[in-house]
């Protein structure tokens, strides 16, 4: 009888962990990098923080050899949606 109760507790605790992970993923932000919109080369973050900078934020995707790909300049296009979220995914 004790073994059966232990299994039941393990299932409940495991399920709670999965639920917690799904809820917290709802609010996760995509990666953000400062890049040159023309070349997609990574730039220092200060190039995106002021109006005179030549950079723009690029969300999601990956960075390889100093260039970004697979993401978007539109943050809403790459936001991840978790359980119960209305966000969209893609790029």
List the helices and strands and how they pair.
Layout lengths: L1 H24 L6 E4 L10 H4 L6 E9 L2 E6 L19
Antiparallel strand pairs: 1-2, 2-3
Description:
The chain is elongated and about 60 Å long. The chain is an alpha+beta fold and 91 residues long. Mean pLDDT is 75; it is low at 87-91. It has two helices and three strands. The chain has a three-stranded antiparallel beta sheet with strand order 1-2-3. The protein has helices spanning 2-25, 46-49; strands spanning 32-35, 56-64, 67-72. Strand 2 (56-64) and strand 3 form a beta hairpin.
Please state how the strands of the largest beta sheet are arranged side by side: 1-2-3
List low-pLDDT spans.
87-91
Beta-strand segment tally: 3
The whole-angstrom Rg is: 20 Å
Mean pLDDT value: 75
Distance between the termini: 52 Å
Largest sheet composition: 3 strands, antiparallel
- Outline, from the CA principal axes? elongated
- From the helix content, strand content and strand pairing, which structural class follows? alpha+beta
Task: Give helix and strand order, one letter per element, not per position.
Answer: HEHEE
What helical percentage do the residues reach? 25-40%
How many helix segments? Answer: 2
The percentage of residues in β strands lies in 15-25%
Produce a short descriptive summary.
The chain has 2 helices and 3 strands; from the N terminus they run αβαββ. The chain has 91 residues and is of the alpha+beta class. The radius of gyration is 20 Å and the shape is elongated.
């Amino acid at each position: 009888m004790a073994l059966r109760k232990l299994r039941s507790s393990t299932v409940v605790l495991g399920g709670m962990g999965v639920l917690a992970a799904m809820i917290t993923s709802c609010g996760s932000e995509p990666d953000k990098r400062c890049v040159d919109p023309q070349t997609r080369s990574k730039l220092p973050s200060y190039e995106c923080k002021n109006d005179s900078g030549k950079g723009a934020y690029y969300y999601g995707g990956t960075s390889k050899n100093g260039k970004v790909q697979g993401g978007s300049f539109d943050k809403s296009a790459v936001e991840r949606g978790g359980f119960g979220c209305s966000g969209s995914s893609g790029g």
